Amino acid sequence: TFRTVPDQAEIHLNGSFEGISNQSFNLPLRDYDILIKKEGYFDLRDKLILPPEGSDRLLFYELEKKENDDE
């Protein structure tokens, strides 16, 4: 499950849009480059490596608000 503050952020995995935050994703076991985006906030990037045994994970991210939307 991807949870973000603020909620309703876009979740992109390995360059593809997967959905909106605060929901669960059924992901194959592999490595992922994560990009989280929301208008008015700085993009956040991370890496996720799912273990071979698999597990449910809660991933929490807090986005930093832009002071000025002209950036």
Task: Give keywords.
single chain; 71 residues; mainly beta; two-stranded parallel sheet
- H-E order: EEEEEE
Classification by helices and strands = mainly beta
Radius of gyration: 13 Å
Name the beta content range.
Answer: 35-45%
Q: What ranges have pLDDT less than 50 throughout 5 or more consecutive residues?
A: none
Which term fits the overall shape? Answer: elongated
Query: If strands are numbered along the chain, what order do they take across the biggest sheet?
Result: 3-2-4-5
What is the mean predicted local confidence, pLDDT?
88
Residues in helices, as a percent range: under 10%
Main sheet record: 4 strands, antiparallel
Q: How many distinct helices?
A: 0
Count of strand segments = 6
State the distance separating the first and last CA atoms. 30 Å
Summary, kept brief:
The protein is mainly β and 71 residues long. The protein has strands at residues 2-5, 10-13, 16-20, 31-37, 44-49, 59-62.
Description:
The mean pLDDT is 88. The strands form 2 sheets. A 4-stranded antiparallel β-sheet has the order 3-2-4-5, with no helix packed on it. Strands 1-6 form a two-stranded parallel ribbon. It is mainly β and 71 residues long. The protein has strands spanning 2-5, 10-13, 16-20, 31-37, 44-49, 59-62.
